[in-house]
Amino acid sequence: MTIETRAPVFTPMDSSKWALTGISDHYDALTGLLCRSVLDSDIRAPALSGRELVIVMVELDQFSRFNREHGRAIGDFVLAMTANRLTGIRQRWDSRCYRYDGDCFVQLLLTDAPVDGESLKTLSLDIQQALKPGIHLADQLIELTCTVTAAITMGSAPLSQVLAEAQRYSNSMKYQGVGQLHILNFDQELKAKACG
Q1: Residue ranges of the domains in the chain?
Q2: Which pTM value belongs to this model?
């Protein structure tokens, strides 16, 4: 099963804030999202330092089992639908959405104003709600849940480190059940480690 059109990739913004733009081979062929190599470049972009940044990691719950039960073609279709739903969520921040790895997606949010934990919790719940409606395939209704990890930083640590920490939290939450949600304030965590 092939998806002919690409999902929208990011909200209109000044492209000079990002490392790579407009290069078609930097898109994931299945989902139409930017690929991991673009994320790796974007998180090293000098224009991002000193800005409020949020990394939102979204992983579909138990997707390996889903792929085994329904087959890779249906799994690929569901990944493309998931990407489309993720990019359709209205946000008040500049953002980019990437296919990070398999069933894992990353949204990078950029803002000049502080982002509080409550706003991120709302965004994370919005993401879970956007992915919750079933996907109709022939006579089946496929329902998915996802785990969302959002990490906030004001540039006190390299974004690659923040991304790695978000991934660590996301991986650890897989074993706590489906539909997990975690907000990580990376700057506060660093201060706590420095004081402790």
Answers
A1: 23-195
A2: 0.79
